[in-house]
Amino acid sequence: MTPSPPDAAPRLFDRTLLRVRQDRAARMGPATFLLDRIAEDMAERQSAVLRDFSEGVDIGTPGDQVRAALAARVRRLRPVALPVSDAEALELEPASVDLAVSALALHFVNDLPGTLAQIRRALKPDGLFLAALMGGDTLTELRQSFAAAEAEVEGGLSPRVAPFADLRDLGGLLQRAGFALPVTDADRIVVRYADAFALMQDLRRMGATNILNERRRSPSRRATLLRMAQVYAERFADADGRIRATFDVVWLSGWAPHASQQKPLKPGSAKMSLEDAVKKAGERK
User: Is residue 148 part of a domain?
Assistant: First the structure.
């Protein structure tokens, strides 16, 4: 196997397997409740921007819900696939679009900083980037239940649930990629299921099961799965016996720099010191 270059991003995800899992989900009948909600929220967020967009791209979103939701506000919004190979670039020309959106896709990218930089280069000046991806404590209940079950039944742990980026880290990545006015926020969605196996079935129908390169290749032991479901029910069930599953949706937005945008004040240009401002605030009380 050829080693990765020293500066290459770590290859956490098997993106070829992701494509296989997404194709399987489409054949099974996809579970789209998260994507439906995100598409609705994305349309609401975009409607708050008082301008129309003529040329946009939808990057990697596994479905057409976002494009349908934004159809009235964007003259043309075409899908752009995320490459399977980390060596491939996005099919985007520099300064070619004024809107780039993405939903439930970027958390499975190995080189997120590089992907964000490519999106930034593809935007025209004053173009908008708006994305939603999984982050934070997504599936923390499933992660904890599997860890407890494997430690008890098998005496060790295996990687099962992907690591998700922290909200503060994502804000820094937007700045590094060259976006102006970067904003990040999160929306926590809690979904209830009859049991852990119903949750895992939905994850299959989302194409969101384990694609970590370091995943265990052999099937899970029946005893481990049964103990995981038991732990899940013991720790994360409501009074009616239904379990909770957390999905943290992290929202990113940023603009390609433009002369019309607000700029931060230069150091030393403030007309009042922080100390004086605090004193004046105290005098008004």
Answer: no
Residue 237: strand, helix, or coil: strand
Query: DSSP strand E in the chain: where?
Result: 53-59, 74-80, 97-103, 123-135, 180-193, 243-255
Would 86 be classed as within a structural domain? yes
**In this model, does residue 1 exceed pLDDT 60?**
no
Whether residue 21 contacts residue 209, with contact meaning beta carbons closer than 8 Å, is answered with yes
In a domain, 239, yes or no: no
Q: Range of 279's domain?
A: 15-143+161-217+245-284
Which CATH number fits the domain that encloses residue 138? 3.40.50.150
DSSP secondary structure letter of residue 262? -
Summarised one tens digit per residue, pLDDT across range 126-151 is 999 999 999 888 999 999 999 999 89
Looking at the whole model, is its pTM more than 0.90? no
In sequence order, what DSSP letters do the residues of 41-82 get, joined into one string? HHHHHHHTS-S-EEEEEEES-SSSHHHHHHTTTEEEEEEEPP
Helices 222-236 and 140-153 pack at an angle, to 10 degrees, of 130
| Domain annotation covers residue 262 | yes
Q: Give how many domains the chain has, as a whole number.
A: 1
> Taken in order 27, 15, 169, 119, is the CA torsion positive or negative?
negative
Number of H helices, E strands in the chain: 9, 6
Shortest CA distance to 42 belongs to which of 254, 247, 191, 252? 252
Whose CA is closest to 10, among 84, 81, 82, 86? 86
